[in-house]
Amino acid sequence: MPVAVSRGKLVRPAARAAAFHGTMTWATRITILRLILIPVFVTLIITYDETTSQGHAEEVWRYAAIAVFLVASISDALDGYLARHWNQRSALGAFLDPIADKLLLLASLVTLGLIPLDHLRPFPIWFPAIIISRDALLLGGYCVLRHFQVPVEIHPHWTGKASTLFTLLAIGAVLFKLGAWAIFSLCTLGAGFALFCTMLYVREGLGLLSRSGYTTAQSVTKK
Questions:
Q1: Residues ≥6 apart with Cβ < 8 Å to 187
Q2: pTM for this prediction
């Protein structure tokens, strides 16, 4: 069996593989769990709406969806706490964490706002449209900055965090059937903060491009 030399010692491949076994941090595992819970949440909502008993939806599916959504939401805070305070940061975790957050919100908004449901009050159509458009615009702006190789550091603004909070509360209001006024109020706050933080990010992005010289007119040399 071939061996490798490490600091004067012979290390067999099997032993070397065992040394790397189990090195994934708990913060990253929790993030991956959140990704797995997203299709589970969507399936439970659809099952709740389609499963009826004597003309009424079976509430056990809604309760299960609420439990999954709460676990997924709490796991976001938990993996962040582990990463910051228990030295659980990893490159994979840093990459997957924002993806998991956005996918959870996107799946919830699409399921509760764009899919026709008979037993849950849907979001007003403008709410998922604003939130999804905001994320698409910010992603497009980030790609533009990367295309022009403009150095950028991502620092979430408090208005973006407020928008996410009110969006999560609006989703909870739909799941708990709190009523039209509560849902509308939370949607209005979430959308308002989303629009405000979008304007801030767009202004900052345009400022970076301007300072790098990509927004000024460039002369064309004729041959």
A1: 123, 124, 127, 166, 170
A2: 0.79
